[in-house]
Specification:
Elements (H helix, E strand, L loop, with lengths): L18 E8 L22 E3 L15 E3 L4 E5 L5 E4 L2 E5 L14 H4 L53 E3 L6 E3 L47 E7 L6 E3 L3 E5 L2 E6 L3 E4 L1
Antiparallel strand pairs: 1-2, 1-3, 1-9, 4-5, 4-13, 5-6, 7-8, 9-12, 10-13, 11-12
């Protein structure tokens, strides 16, 4: 959890002792699809959202376990369609990209648009994409549908309104991430979801879904983010990939907006 970090003994070869760290991993949002034959298409779902910090993971899940970092091990943060945080002793922290919205030629968008949060339906009215357990919620089925968010099902706040993301203070400041894209003239969800239109892309490094396109263009989802929060007394300062490093009380926060590493 976010509190009660423990010193776990001494590291091998006299290095730093192991220490516990909180984490947050968000994948890129799904694409808002285009439709040349109808006034709108389906919006993209938010990228998958998992965290150990207060506020919980996507899809209504509780915070997951923090992780023990061991001296000398390199932990790699990959920020992309599928975002991950891995090391030789951590292999299970990953999320999936948001589901794309349905287009006019999709005969079964539900089969094509699952994701961290599900994409919205096509104008032909097929089934929306489903969210992934512990990562996000479903897209909207009444066509053309909006995208699901990490914090709520698509259209919770009204028809076409992208599902909102989840609020986190892992960096020390409150921020909402992983909102779904909007459709039917309604806005994207809080947390970077794009609005419908010709330039309704998801906000960068939020995992927000792309808004439904109104012409032949696509609206890309916003890129993801990986965040580590470690005790400042244990922070080594050894990173690659130029993450943003800040402090919050007794903790150091390492925010990766592109792929990089941290050596414990």
């Amino acid at each position: 959890m976010a509190f009660g970090y423990r010193v776990l003994g001494f590291g091998a070869g006299g290095g730093k002792p192991p220490y516990e760290a909180d984490w947050l991993v968000v994948s890129g949002g799904g694409t808002g699809w285009h439709c040349s034959h109808m006034p709108s298409s389906g919006a993209g779902g938010a990228g998958g959202y998992r965290t150990s910090f207060a506020g919980g993971s996507g899809g209504g899940a509780s915070p997951q376990s923090n992780r023990t970092l061991n001296s000398g091990i390199v932990y790699t943060a990959t920020v992309g369609g599928t975002s991950t945080l891995v090391g030789s002793d951590i292999t299970d922290i990953l999320t999936v990209s948001g589901g794309r919205g349905g287009g006019f030629y999709d005969t079964a968008p539900g089969a094509l648009a699952p994701g961290g949060s599900g994409g919205g339906t096509s104008p032909r009215g097929n089934t929306a994409g489903l969210g992934t357990a512990n990562e996000g919620y479903d897209g909207e089925t009444p066509s053309p549908g909006c995208g699901g968010g990490a914090g709520e099902v698509a259209a919770t706040d009204g028809a076409g309104h992208g599902g909102d993301g989840v609020v986190s203070s892992i960096t020390g400041a409150s921020v909402t991430l992983a909102g779904g894209g909007g459709s039917k003239g309604s806005p994207g969800g809080d947390g970077g979801g794009g609005a419908p239109g010709t330039s309704g892309v998801g906000t960068v490094n939020t995992g927000g879904g792309g808004g439904a396109s109104l012409d032949t263009d696509y609206n890309a989802g916003g890129s993801g983010v990986v965040i580590l929060r470690v005790p400042t007394a244990s922070y080594t300062g050894t990173t690659t990939g130029s993450p943003t490093v800040s402090t919050d009380g007794d903790y150091t926060v390492i925010k990766f907006t592109a792929t990089g590493t941290y050596t414990a």
